[in-house]
Design a protein that fits this description.
375 residues; alpha/beta
Length: 375
Amino acid sequence: MQFANVIAHEAEKKHLIRTVKENRISHAQMFLGPAGSGSVPLAIAYAQYILCQNKQENDSCGSCVSCTKIQKHNHPDLHFSFPVHLSKEKHIYKSDNVLAEWREILDENPYFGIDDWNLKLGNENKQGIIGKEESQNIISKISLKSFDGGYKILIMWLPELMNGQASNKLLKFIEEPPDKTVFLLVAEDQEQIIATIRSRTQIIKLPRLKDIEIAAYLETEKGVTASDSEIIAQLAEGDVAKAVHLISEQTVANFNFENFVNWMRFCYQRNIAKSIDWVDLIAAAGRENQKSFLKFCLNMFRQCIVGHYTGNELVVLTEEQTTFLSKFSPFINSENIVDLTEAFNDAYYHIERNASAKILFLDLSIKTFSLLQKK
């Protein structure tokens, strides 16, 4: 990963390059940015620049032995640490146990998020952590001499998911690491990291990516048309991982829109029989699809309200969605938007906690029957 491959963050890139040129590499740094902003790619590009054997003016060479190994994610002096599932059955307690999966996801999309990683590990419903076994493994690896006689670098993704035992084990090691050892903590929420570790790192804040930056990436790297990339970038809200999902989930998008149209018609008509048939269909779709659908509904309601107050200038929709909402939006107004939002958010909360989908969506249908009549 070279700096040239990292979306935007030009000021941060220049700063990082300068630290290497001026031999001012801090031994503990925190790359702090929102999900999908490119913190992981930037940290890898920085590590590659530090370890590059033929540094260029503004980037690593990309072709030396060191760069080649990093691009294959197997450089012996670049280590990774990340949340894993502490499964007694599979005995996954350390990052080293799932390095193959880590390399795969970096190759597939380096802007991945925690949901993508959990899915890659085979359990999207279970939260991974960085535990005491991982911290001990880090200490053991970093204590060894570097393979090439230069820097040893550890990139830790989501240090906020370290448990207390792991944090305490690593605290002194981060404060006083071996010579030429660099810790790069890639975080999204610094408040979840213990203060003693936060205070020992140099924080580099990465801003949310702009829509125009994501749109350009989608056009050049993913082959998305200019018009579609603009819409997707706005819907992604600064998260490249979300933008990539929006591209690959066209089938899901069609599923969500079709079901939203049918459901809202049944609810407006107060057609209980058709609503029950529809509930049976959505109940069979699976929990993750149901969560996605509820998010889609909330966005549709939001677009209706935004359209009322801006004359549709800020509405971000496909042509087909715009046509439908031009007829549907009058039924979403100041009298019902708060109650609708609360009801659908509550439904999302309970679906996450394994509520019965049939009971939940039938109850939500009945609530929507009356709410759509409010004017």
